[in-house]
Design goal:
By secondary structure, the chain is mainly α. The chain has a single domain, classed as Ferritin (Up-down Bundle). It has four helices and no strands. The longest helix has 28 residues. The model has no long low-confidence stretch (mean pLDDT about 95).
Length: about 140
Amino acid sequence: MDELNVTKTCQILNNIMEYELAGVVRYTHYSLMVAGPYRIPIVEFMQGQASESLLHAQKAGEIITGLDQHPEQRIAQIDETHNHEIHAILEESLDHEVRSLDLYKDLLETVEGASIYLEEYARTMIGQEELHVMELRKMLRDFAI
């Protein structure tokens, strides 16, 4: 097995943590702003995404401290478009999930061959993020012209 690059691994995990914490804020905001006939199921979906993002951030932080490193107290930049139409919210959510997926893929690339636990963690998270991307794409199909 290769030696784990703890510094690089924790940099990526900190980025994941910051991005997932931004997801908590993003999805909570979206859940408050949704209006229209599909409000209730979309609000429930967004609240679920916010809760899951918090769990993901906490898990990344636990791994950082498990590697004897220090999790940062930052949150990723959140762009506010002020467009709260359902289609726009779903598109922004899709963009967020695709970026999150990329972060977990970066983590996998960094830990591959050096830590089975971190490889499995990264693969599990990639699977979850891919599922989110698929779900959002399905939700957006209703808006296809």
